[in-house]
Amino acid sequence: MTDVADARPRAAVDRPHHDAWGTARTVLRVHRAAVRVWALAVVVLSGWLVWFTETVAKDTRAETEACDRAGRDLCDLTVGMVGYGETVDWIGLLTSYLFLAVAAFAGGALFGRELENGTARLAWTQGVTPARWLAAKLAVPALVVTAGATVLVLVFRWAWGGDHGLLYDGWTSDAAYLSRGPATVAYALCALAVGAVTALLLRRALPALAVSVAVTGLLGHVVARLRASFWPTVTVTSPSPTGELDHPASAWEVESGSVVHGRHVPDFAYWRCDGTAAETRRCLADLGVEGSYVTYHPESHYWPLQLVETGVVLAVTAAATAAAFWLLRRRTA
Predict the structure, then answer these.
(1) What is the percent of the chain with per-residue pLDDT over 70, rounded to a whole number?
(2) Is 8 or 253 the better-scoring residue by pLDDT?
(3) 93 and 195: one domain?
């Protein structure tokens, strides 16, 4: 009698844990084709980049050094950009914007299709609560996406760090900025959460797919436009209106212009002052131009900018996740 009494609480305690694992296995089984496609994309992009770096980069570097010794001015342009650099840029772009594919999958197949077909409600009648269903549908893909995106980021960082001198674009380019840091993972997780929200709102697969892609794409665009303000910039001034400003060649130039009556005026129109050097100086003085300036981010600001952007995107992810659970609770109440 005692053994029976002891077994009942244990079964009651173990059941939620068993149900959670069962729901997770169901998510993996239903979407195993998508998991395989994601794994294949990660393997292909990573393998392509490793092979290209270990073979083509060495040949490109040797050819570049030969061009330098021969004194050819266009060596880096013709070899780096058209050859190795162009391919690596494409891999970086694909890595950076894979979150759009994640948004399409989340809004369409992961949530939208099940809500449209009614299979979600069927699952809720089989002992799986709506909240647990949503948690599993978010957590399992999140683990898969995080693992794959992390591998892509690490491989791209390895390749870019060793041979970024062969690349035409710098550290601020679309190909290199996101694909070398944790913001890539954050955008992918945000795409999952946005897909859940849009699917719960629209309850139809194709509209949810389209809206999820549009919203995450718009988010990426807006954040990119605000990126320069995520960390304090460095400003260098010169007393000469047309003088050279001392800043690193690799710097991300955010703004430049003239100092007019003590104020920074971006993109000052020098065409107003046309003529000889003396006439230009006199014209600029008449306009109140006292010097020039440039505002920039040095390459050392990469990690502060990247981490702040990651935090912003993760905050949006948390808000979208909370909104998804709130919507589900309202719809199933």
Answers:
(1) 79
(2) 253
(3) yes
Whether residue 245 is predicted with pLDDT greater than 80 in this model: the reply is no
The Cα-based distances of 268 to 137, 192, 244, 291 in angstroms read 54, 44, 15, 11
- Are both 211 and 306 inside the same structural domain? yes
Q: Does 115 share its domain with 221? A: yes
CA separation, residue 287 to residues 278, 279, 290 (Å): 14, 12, 9
In the prediction, which pLDDT does 8 show? 42
The secondary structure of residue 243, as a DSSP letter, is P
Question: How many domains does the chain contain in total?
Answer: 2
In a shared domain, residues 167 and 64: yes
For residues 289 and 327, state if they share a domain.
no
- Give the global pTM: 0.84
Q: Looking at the structure, do residues 145 and 223 belong to the same domain, yes or no?
A: yes
Does the pLDDT value for residue 326 go beyond 50? Answer: yes
Non-local CB neighbours of 306 within 8 Å, separated by 6+ positions: 177, 180, 181, 182, 183
The verdict on 45 and 122 lying in the same domain is yes
152, pLDDT greater than 90? yes
* Sheet of strand 234-238: strand arrangement: 234-238, 289-297, 252-260, 263-266
